[in-house]
Structures are given as C-alpha cells and as structure tokens.
Amino acid sequence: MARSSSTDRRYLELHGGKWRVTISIPRDLQRKLGTKLKHPLNTDSLAVANRLKWPVIARLKERIELERGGGLHASHIKQALVMSDSRRSAVSDVELVASDAAIIELADQILGPVVDEGTNAVTGQVEPVYNKDREKRAVEFAKVALGHATPMDRHHQQYLDQLTVKPRTRADDERAMKYLKAWCELEGVSPVLQSFTRKTAVRFMDGLSGVAQGLSPVTLNKYLRRLSRYWQWLEMRNEVEDNIWRGLTIAEPKTAYDEAERSFTDDEVRRLLQGEATQHMHDLMRIAALTGARIDPIVCLRVCDCADGVFIFKPQKKEKKERACPIHPDLAAIIERRVEGKEPEDALFPEWPAPRKKGSMRERSFKASSQFTDYRRKMGVDEVVSGKRRSLVNFHSFRRWFITKAEQADQPESIIAAVVGHKRQGMTLGRYSAGPLVDQARRCVEAVNLPCP
Q: Core-binding (CB) domain spans which residues (predicted)?
C-alpha cells in the first residue's frame, strides 16, 4: 500500500521546525563524506516535503556513486558484472545478441538525456553533449558488461578465500591491492586487468614508494610478491595472459654486518630473566629460550600440546604440519603449574586470549609481543640503528640464542634444524616421544641451559 504524503517520513527529518532530506552514507565512504548527507527543503509541511524530496534524493545518491568511482561497490559496476556473467553464459548467438541489446539499453539509461550540443573538432559535425559524469559511468558499464574491461579486483575476494596463509599475510594482499588502486587513481590508469602490461607493472614498481610513503624496499617487495601471486592465480584461470609481476623487485640496500638482527648475549638473557615482569611473561621467556620457538606458537599452546614430554607447536612460516619439541627439564615445573586443573583444550597462556574482533588480522601473540618489547626496553636490552624500523634485538633473539647455544654444545646441525623447525631434508620429529630422532632432539634441547644468575 502506498504511503500518504502526510505520514511518509522516508529520507526526511525535522530540523529547526523545517524538513530536510537526509541519506545515510555507506560505511566504506564515511571517511570522505561523514555519516549522512543532508539538504534543507525549507518547508514545515510534510506533504510539501514529500513532493520536493525525490529530485534531491536522486542528486545526493548520485554524489555517493561519484565518490565510489568505478570500484566494485559502485552500483553500475555491480550491474555490469551481473550482465557480464549473463553474457558469458549465453549458449547461442540469439542469446548473445539479446544480451548485448540489453546491455546497450541499460548503458543508454545510465547515459541519460542530452544536455547540450557541440561541434566535433575533427569532423565539424554537430553532436549531442551528455552529462560528463553520467557519460563516464555509461562507458564503464558498457566495457565491463561486454567483457572488454575486468575490474582488477573482481576476483580478488575469491583469491583471498582460497589462501591458506596467516591473517597477517592476507592483510598484505589487501594492502597491496589498495596501493595498486591508489596508484591507478594518481596516474590516471584505468583500474582494469586489460590496462596492465609488463611496462605498466614496472611503472607501478617505480612509483610504489611514492604511494606507500615511508616503507622500506623490503616491505615494498613484499607487496609486489603478493600482487605476483594474485596474477599467477589469475593466469591459471585464463583471466590474464601472463603474470606481469614475475621477477619484479626493488633493489634492497645491503645490511652491514653490525646492522643485522642478532641473538641475545648471555648477559641480556640474564637481565631479562631476573627483571620485574609478570609471571606469565617470565614463563613465556623461559619457554622461548629453551625451545627456540617463535612467540605465536608458544602463546597458542593448549594443555593437550604439552603432554608426553614434548611440546606440539602449530606450523609457522613454510612448515606444512605441527612440530614436536622435547620439553626441557627446567620447564617441567612451569608446565605442571600451568596445566593443573585445566581441560585438554584450555589455553596454556589464557593471559593472552585470541582477538575478540571477528576477522581480526592480528595474531594471538600481538599483545604478548608488545608487552615484551616494553619490558625489554625497560630492562635496557635494546640496540637501535638509524634507518632501521626495529631493534636489532627482539623476541626472535631468544630463538637465535637457543640455536647459538646448541651449536656451541656441538649438537648436529640437522637435529637443531628439526628442533626449531628450519627447512631441512630427511627426517622430521614425530608427534610422540618415541624413536631415536626424538632422543637426539631431547639431548639437543637439554644441552642448552639458561645462564647462571
């Protein structure tokens, strides 16, 4: 049933006794436009306001569409993608002709009426002139719908959904696409797959530091690699002819020997283990020092991962499966205290729970890492080099310290690699505490001892 003009308040609100139009801004545009667009109607009559509001609503919605540009969220691009899929599914020439006719008809609707006349500078003939913004959207619609242009991020969500990487790496993929779009807007390059050639990719590589200001070549190369993986995925699906990013890298400055991240010294380990920190921080540091494990697998340990005399650490980096590491005798009391009264699936470190926000890209260990950094600096364990983003000593220095101490204790390199999860050929430790390899790994772990007070 149609609403009466005397009761219909859609898109309307009273302000100072007068009616005005108000339209909510989609969340992705609120940084640009705020939360709402408003326009006064200068009337206190609801019936009059309902007669005046529709042209205003159309203009405000058009402004929102213009702010969106040609991205996937723009309504004309969404519609074009639907028409493109329909066209690609045509099974006969008759269906294809009908699909193309529908596309042209919709493009004409987007184009809108003639607003003026002009003379063609080449032919001298009089030609109709259309609203430039509407004309731009109509051309974008037609190109996408007819399959002549594919938004470069059209398949990006599908690509992200099939990735089996850590949330932080997935965030790198999203950031790389964001920088690519920003560069396209800055350089006037149409953000479609058909615009990108090897030369275009090189131009982007050369201009990336200007778009992503303040980032090191190492970080910029990470984004180039993520784009390369996406294009490789597109190539396998015949969406592009070639991976134009293959082999593109920005020159990275060589790191001087005295600027490389390093192991803790025994004195630094001693200071960290004797300082005033929380009990869970002390437990975390000792497990790191006597296993060589990274921070996130330690923080993510469950009670069931600390049974039968071994830790079971989740896969990290390029590890394909979980990894076993014998529990050092000096850690036995810590583990016994932490598992007491808990269920097998309970966290060993409940002090650092997983992020509450759904879809968070942060690892569970994010807060633990931040707290350790603050504590390390408070204890004066730091080495900052001008031009480098982080200290040459960090939580990973426990891992380097463990490896160094195992090497100094004449432990075989292959066994050290198995214990800490470095890439190696041949045997890997099993889940259960049995067999000669686990015995060797246990001897390796027990050869490392914390420095005396």
A: 150-235
Backbone region of residue 387 per phi and psi (left: phi > 0; alpha: psi in -120 to 50; beta: other values): left
Say yes or no: 184 and 38 in one domain.
no
CB atoms within 10 A of CB 87: 18
Residues 265 and 409 in one domain: yes
The pair of three-digit structure tokens given for residue 447, joined into one six-digit string: 């050869």
> Token digits for 171?
């965030």
Residue 246: pLDDT band (50, 70, 90) is very high
Q: Are 2 and 25 in contact (CB under 8 A)?
A: no
pTM of the model: 0.62
pLDDT for position 435:
45
pLDDT at 106 over 90: no
In a domain, 250, yes or no: no
**Alpha carbon 358 to chain centroid, angstroms:** 14
pLDDT of residue 367: 95
Q: Give the tokens for residue 253.
A: 């400055």
pLDDT at 381 over 80: yes
C-alpha–C-alpha distance, residues 391 and 389, integer Å: 7
CB of 310 closer than 8 Å to CB of 326: yes
Do 349 and 435 have their domain in common? yes
Please check whether residues 412 and 292 belong to one and the same domain. yes
Q: Which parts of 264-340 fold into alpha helices (H)?
A: 266-274, 279-289, 295-299, 332-339
pLDDT beyond 60 at 2: no
Instruction: Report the helix count and the strand count for the chain, using DSSP H and E.
Output: 17, 7
Report the percent of the chain where pLDDT is more than 70: 91
For the chain, what is the radius of gyration of the CA atoms? 31
Domain housing 41: 12-68
| Tens digits of residue pLDDT in 266-315 | 999 999 999 999 999 999 999 999 999 999 999 999 999 999 899 999 98
For residues 335 and 420, membership in a common domain is answered with yes
- For residue 34, what are the contacts with CB-CB under 8 A and spacing of at least 6? 25
